[in-house]
Amino acid sequence: MLWRRRAWGRAALLALTLLALPVAAQGKKPAASASAYVPPPADQIPGYSAKAMPCEIIQELIPPRITCEGDWLEGKSLRELAILRNTIFARYGWAGFRKPWLREHFQKQPWFKPNPKFTYKLLSDADRRNVHFIAVREQSFTERELRSMEDTLYAKAGKVWNDAYEWKLKNGRTVRSCTEPKDVDYEEGCSGSECEGSYSRDCTFQAEAWYRPDPKFSEDKLPAEARIELGLISRALGSFASDTGKLEKGSQASLDRILSVQELRQLSLRDLRLLRNTLYARRGRPFKSKILQAHFKAMSWYREDPSYTDARLTENDKRNIGLIRSVEDEFGGPLKDEDWLIDPATDAA
After folding, report:
1. Is the pLDDT at 88 greater than 80, yes or no?
2. Which of these, 294, 284, 295, 285, lies nearest to 235 by C-alpha position?
3. How far is residue 164's CA from residue 240's CA, in Å, rounded to a whole number?
């Protein structure tokens, strides 16, 4: 009986040893490497859709617009759209975000795991379509919409513009008011809100239940998210803004100054391309790129001039263009139209 117990003991030990061996050593098909990146489940990622969004792009409009069933993209800010688009890349471990706020956002997400072997090939066809849809939405805002978004951010922080409608009275006086006062003199022409094109931000927001005017308003009271959004809007409108959450003022927001490499390195390749071509657009340069045409033709300040030459560029323009190109080259080279809406290195527009 003793020899049987010893035999069973040796058999059990052999079985345990075999179970502890790698699968390949057991004569079976090798399993996936333990270090292979496994994306987190789609349902654990807020805003992520494993299916293609039910959206349609309308190319005939300038800029191109996108319509979706439901509220997939409507009502979202530039910041929210940037997060939504980059969430698709982040699910597969993309961690090369140069924008500090994007990098910090994803580092705080419990589902996020950096993947050193990230490649765009990891994305599904639905992922690629969704990236494209979101990017088109980011680029679809008109100048009027962008300025309205900008004003709303300030209004939510209590800003007062002191631009109520100006009314001319019969006694010769003028008063400012959001409502029509008595004894308005219409014989002298239009007055107040009756004038064509008249617009008052104070009066517009006074009609909103959430508006709380703050006579002591300062930009220091703006929350961090609002500062980031204002920077994105500023760049979309043709001014300069970094992605640090710091609001540039006066000359710092102007493209007439010399930009720094440190500032430029925080921008995406898409930002850099748009910024570089904004310098040309301000001088009237026509564009062959359909994407650039659509963007700048939507800006009221853009005046395309077929007779444009680079001789119109100032010395600061030339210096900034050179700096931007050097940073673009540092990050792999300028984006082309075919990369504009899909390249993960763009880090949001």
Report:
1. yes
2. 295
3. 29
Q: Which fold has domain 255-349?
A: Methane Monooxygenase Hydroxylase; Chain G, domain 1 (1.20.58)
pLDDT higher than threshold 90 for residue 306 = yes
Residue 254 φ/ψ, nearest 5 degrees: -90, 140
User: 131, 37, 132: which is closest to 93 by C-alpha?
Assistant: 37
**Direct distance between the N- and C-terminal alpha carbons of the chain, in angstroms, rounded to an integer:** 79
The tens digit of pLDDT for each residue in 93-109 reads: 999 888 889 999 999 99
Domain extents for the chain? 45-139, 255-349
Architecture of domain 45-139: Up-down Bundle (1.20)
Beta bridge partners of 174: 168
| Three-state SS sequence of 176-223 | ECCCCCCCECCCCCCCHHHCCCCCCHHHHHHCCCCCCCCCCCCHHHCC
Poorest-pLDDT segment among 116-120, 198-202, 234-238, 284-288: 234-238
Q: In this structure, how many other beta carbons lie within 10 angstroms of the beta carbon of residue 39?
A: 16
Query: What is residue 68's three-state secondary structure?
Result: strand
